[in-house]
Amino acid sequence: MVAVEERSAISTPAAVEVAYLRGATKNYGAHRALDEVSLSLRAGEVVALLGPNGAGKTTAIKLLLGLLGPDAGEARVFGGNPRDAATRTRIGAMLQVARVPETLKVKEYLDLFRSYYPTPLPVEHVVRVAGLAGIEDRLFSQLSGGQKQRLLFALAICGDPDLVFLDEPTLGMDIESRHGLWQQVRDLASRGKTVLLTTHYLEEADSLANRIVVINKGTVIAEGTPAQIKSRVSGRTIKCVTSLDEDLLRRLPGVTSVEVKHGTTVVRSAEVEDNVRQMLALDTGLHSLEISSPALEDAFLALTKGE
Ligand SMILES: Nc1ncnc2c1ncn2[C@@H]1O[C@H](COP(=O)(O)OP(=O)(O)OP(=O)(O)O)[C@@H](O)[C@H]1O
Question: What keywords are assigned to this protein (predicted)?
């Protein structure tokens, strides 16, 4: 897998901070869902909030939307309180459990939500980018799960907001719809919009985010570019077909594990280039060589396991 580097020229540390949580704590009764979480969102960047079920991702978004108030710490959006009317017209949101009445048609929703914003996008544009063409007259209750998700995405962006929150936006979408939505997220960022998304699809975070914030049990446990997060899992993997003995491979410098599965040898090591040179010298018949970096999934599991 190829390491993914910083994607957006717009997103630099100097870019304007559009929203933040500072030391935000949120309790539900005796349960602490967020514990002194700090999170900063800058103009033009896509930030992925990653974490296992119940980590506190949705709660963090709700604080930034002003749907919940923090018990301690601060949530600020465009320099103000997220509940301010002026702030709300610059924000779009797609929540996991969106409460919308089932009795309106797709186009009625679009008209209604566009009316909340001072300078909404043209309805034809929204229909096209969200993949709603041909189903504008359907009732919400008649939509498939993936179509509902696409409508909710359309409602999040129809006001042309500067800051968009997407809580598991591609849940239940087929691959084509998912890739279509990814493209829309990239387009938003390229127009200087800021996107905070939560996802369980690590591939999605890897593919879209400039920055990933890993949250577990209400606490931020890692933050960085996808490449930086991946580098938290040390070593890379060599796969090949070789006659070299497993014990010999284990003794090579940097090697942390060796496995042979279905005739393929898998070596995990901190010094793959040196190891490959040595292996090729020792076994001229070595073939089917592949070197890979750890997937984001490995990093995520390593970061969250046992915490
Ligand atoms: N209204 C509520 N009342 C009580 N507990 C809640 C409430 N909402 C969330 N929680 C608890 O707070 C914790 C954080 O929930 P949250 O929905 O923020 O997690 P999440 O990271 O979004 O999870 P998921 O990936 O499963 O959606 C969980 O333990 C959850 O059970």
Answer: ATP-binding, Nucleotide-binding, Transport
Contacts of 232 (CB under 8 A, 6+ apart): 222, 299, 302, 303
CA distance 232 to 31: 30
Q: Which residue has the tokens 């577990």?
A: 216
**Ligand 1 centroid to residue 178 C-alpha, Å:** 25
Q: Check: CB of residue 44 under 8 Å from CB of residue 185.
A: no
CATH of domain 234-293: 3.30.70
Which of these, 299, 292, 300, 297, lies nearest to 231 by C-alpha position? 299
Name the residue with the closest Cα to ligand 1, atom 17.
58
CATH topology classification for 17-230? Rossmann fold (3.40.50)
State if pTM tops 0.95: no
Query: From the alpha carbon of 29, which atom of ligand 1 is closest?
Result: 4
How do the domains of the chain map onto residue ranges?
Answer: 17-230, 234-293
CA of 113 from ligand 1 middle (Å) equals 27
Using 50, 70 and 90 to split pLDDT, how confident is the model at 297? confident
ipTM score for this prediction: 0.96
